[in-house]
What does this fold into?
Amino acid sequence: MFSTLFLTASLSLAYSPEMCFNLLKVGDYQRALEVGKMLLNRAPNDFSTHKCLSDAYYELGDYRASLSHAKNMKSQEDIC
It folds into this structure.
């Protein structure tokens, strides 16, 4: 049990927004979504993560979720 939790935590630390975007580039939208969600847990206000999630949801046809992340990007942009 501990080793499973440790492995999961270790793998989630290796994820980056670049990995999410690379998955989008190769058309692996579902995996990009999974990586993006993990990244969002670590940094809920990260602009790049919301951009990747917005793109992934759009490609998967979930336009409502895509728009939600796009709006979150806009609010982050307004803060800067």
Summary: The CA atoms of residues 20 and 32 lie 5 Å apart. Residues 63-79 form the longest helix (17 residues).
